[in-house]
């Protein structure tokens, strides 16, 4: 037993003929979302600065982590070296997260304006 009848599917799909008043025969209306042009430039600027500052901080965190690893190994402080290794790993993860998130948000805004 089918969950949807054939006439229900035809009604939802509609016909591609345009009526005299400009409407199409489809029940589902056409919709194209768009971001207001007033918001496009400030949003891009904010996303750019946020991603740039976040990635710069991730790089600084990685460099300081490598410094802690070097100091910890040379002075035989295993705790400092272990924390430095954790800092390097987490700075890599945060950098990838910032880059992916910023790229996704920018892509969504770009798709909405197309």
UniProtKB/TrEMBL annotation:
UniProt entry tagged with the keyword Transmembrane helix: yes
Keyword entries, A-Z: Membrane, Transmembrane, Transmembrane helix
TM annotation in the entry: 46-66, 87-112
Protein name as it appears in the record: Integral membrane protein
Species, as recorded: Actinacidiphila acididurans
